[in-house]
Amino acid sequence: MESTCPSCQLLVSQGRPHPHLHTLSTLKDSQLFKCRCCNSYLHRDQSGWEVLSAGHYQDEAPTATGGRALKTA
Ligand SMILES: [Zn+2]
After folding, report:
1. pTM score above 0.90
2. Which of 8, 22, 28, 59 could form an SS bridge with 4, CB 3.0 to 4.6 Å?
3. Which domain of life does the protein's organism represent (predicted)?
4. Number of separate domains in the chain
């Protein structure tokens, strides 16, 4: 399933850039970015931000941090 990360969703809805953006190309009136968090491609021009191609975003890898304690009753 394709999805964007919360940072990209904020970016599109509120025009707020985030640190995961990687600039792919800069033209006179538009820029192309890729998000390193969710691998989405984003485009910015005078009218604002849009998602060109949604990537894949996972909340958290379940095994990586083990933040949630499981109850084994
Ligand atoms: Zn993203």
Report:
1. no
2. 8
3. Bacteria
4. 1
